């Protein structure tokens, strides 16, 4: 059944459907109850499922994630909300030392089936601490899965898959895409975590993007088409585990690749993707894999963020530099 | 001097036990009683120390304390008198403490023999260790730190499995769900929010589970301690927090850790009743912790207990305690040894005799022998296990890395070894080893 939903509505539907399907699913965090979350992702859940299943916690992120660890130890499937990306950092120790390691520590006895939802990345004119791209911290930590949707249908499917997963999932929600609407078929099978998808076919070069950078890549591909260049766009979706197979196949089919991501480029997920693609596709590459990323600076103030974020022009400039001489 | 504003916070003397006639009783011999634990003469109004945030009328002088002959008050009522636990419970505690002391000494020896990588001993803290386990029912949970292996043993976990982390074989050894004992937690106080989560989940399901969570004096400075207490109070979670104040956080004394009148006072800011108890008095611990567990189980919400004790040995075998404390202090605390105190008390009272003590010592010796035997057994490590539990299903990248490790093992095997190159049997890596630091397999 098709419905037109924003990403925010799709996420809300995913939570509601998961809570209906499994009563061990509980949702908690800061302002997620009566208010429905500052982005309204948990809107109506307390009213529908009661205070025991969707509740406000004290304002302490380590406590929220630590509570979730204990509840997961004792048969629950917690879904917690970190209000903004940079506000997840107080929970970093709980996430890296316990959420990520508990299964391995206990040889599989104590899995951590939980989802840590993080509204992330910029482009919304947020003041300091409201626009960080924190994916590398989490993707670097063995034991965590890290996913990020770029469209409402994936937001629904990936969140259902994350909640159903027996492993902890850091679920990064691109804030600037929350209120873009699209057709969503809620009855489609849920896409497994760990699969990239080709969003736009193309033959000359491959743009590899995720989350908030996918629309930028698609816009760049549309602009390039007008100039007679055919760009393929891959949406990574799952940063950990990473779908080497789909990404490598796509890059091999074009021989050129640009990775697009908002986070600062130094020691980033974009760097990891570039390295993996280079190792796996070297014989098929006509040019070094390029990266278009955020600058290596603290996230800028709202009036300057346009200078930091990858945009269509910067992506097309990178494509232009992919050694087309003689091609 | 620490501030102790009269009228805001109650006095902090350890609790006083009374017998069935209402007379004060202590397991400490007169010469051993520390000044702050001195029992008031019969008939003198007792000091109060229970912190009941709902009762703002009480003062530091314990004006509302009941008469000495009054039965033990409900937890947090503030009278400061607690009924001496029945004889069989005290005998069981002594038996457990004798085993715990033997366990501590055996583990310390196993470090010197190279069988354990490290051992943080709870020698001197056995009353806390045993009481923490003894007050729990089967369905309850215990959350230990790395120094609480003796409590884990007292809870019924196999002693060898208790030491898996410290042996270097793996990060954890026992069946968490069978014993309802969480893994030893090394980062300080991080286990406390987990304890709240386990308790909250149980409460949501309508179970009467209680969770007892351990931490030390140093741990009370960590943010997770405060977040856990606050969450437990707000969620009304059935958690008993037992702080073993053993006077030092490695080398740092309590005076550098807090300016509060006591660690038990830290509960008041969160709306949690706190109690201070002599941590070398097993009888007092059983009374106070038992009441705390009962109160939490009955829906009374969380409790905080501070047990003042002393770490007789260094932080671990790798630490040199002579750099930060005086021998005289250690000697003074050794005279208050919790095992000696309870043994003397029960012997003088006639609850036990020499034959009982010999039987307890025999039990402890058998446990130690089994521990030595278990740790002397070579563990066969399968390298595939490094990848097996990272996720429910290994990622493609982990499968690639396992293949690499397997290839390395086959390549490095001795000439003439024609063992099949099966993954789990990859030569060298699947051979008996003593762990990460000794690939020679000397054990």
Write structural notes for this entry.
The complex is a heterodimer of chains A (327) and B (443). With 327 residues, chain A is α/β, with parallel strands linked by helices. Chain A has helices at residues 7-21, 45-49, 61-73, 92-99, 102-105, 135-139, 152-164, 214-226, 244-254, 269-281, 305-308, 312-320; strands at residues 2-6, 25-29, 54-56, 77-81, 115-120, 145-147, 169-174, 181-185, 197-200, 205-209, 231-235, 238-240, 257-264, 290-294. In chain A, helix 8 (214-226) packs across helix 12. Chain B has 443 residues and is of the alpha/beta class. Chain B folds into two domains: 82-376, Rossmann fold (3-Layer(aba) Sandwich), CATH 3.40.50; 381-433, no CATH class. Chain B is built from 14 helices and twelve strands. The model of chain B is unreliable at 1-11, 33-79 and 423-443 (pLDDT under 50). The A-B interface holds A 26, 52, 57-58, 60, 62-63, 65-76, 78, 90, 93-94, 97-98, 101-111, 142-143, 145, 165-167, 194, 240-242, 244-245 and B 170-172, 175-177, 182-183, 187, 190, 192-202, 204-205, 223-224, 227-228, 230-231, 234-235, 385, 388-392, 395-397.
Q: Largest interface, and how many residues on either side?
A: A-B, 48 and 40 residues
CATH topology (level 3) name of the largest domain in chain B: Rossmann fold
Strand order of the largest sheet of chain B: 4-5-6-10-9
Give the SSE string of chain B. EEEHHEHHHHHEHEEEEHEHHHEHHE
How many strand elements of chain A?
Answer: 14
Oligomer: heterodimer
Q: End-to-end distance of chain A, in Å?
A: 46 Å
For the biggest sheet of chain A, the summary is: 7 strands, mixed
Inertia-based shape of chain A:
globular
What class do helices, strands and sheet pairing of chain B give? alpha/beta
Topology overview:
The complex is a heterodimer of chains A (327) and B (443).
Chain A: E1 2-6, H1 7-21, E2 25-29, H2 45-49, E3 54-56, H3 61-73, E4 77-81, H4 92-99, H5 102-105, E5 115-120, H6 135-139, E6 145-147, H7 152-164, E7 169-174, E8 181-185, E9 197-200, E10 205-209, H8 214-226, E11 231-235, E12 238-240, H9 244-254, E13 257-264, H10 269-281, E14 290-294, H11 305-308, H12 312-320
Chain B: E1 16-18, E2 24-25, E3 81-83, H1 87-112, H2 126-134, E4 141-143, H3 149-154, H4 159-162, H5 164-167, H6 176-179, H7 191-204, E5 211-216, H8 223-235, E6 239-245, E7 248-249, E8 252-253, E9 274-278, H9 282-300, E10 303-308, H10 327-334, H11 338-349, H12 354-376, E11 379-380, H13 385-388, H14 396-412, E12 432-433
Parallel strand pairs in B: 1-3, 4-5, 5-6, 6-10, 9-10
Antiparallel strand pairs in B: 1-2, 7-8, 11-12
Helix pairs in contact in B: 1-2, 1-11, 1-12, 2-9, 7-8
Organism (chain A): Myceligenerans indicum
Cofactor (chain A): thiamine diphosphate
Domain Transketolase-like pyrimidine-binding (chain A): 5-180
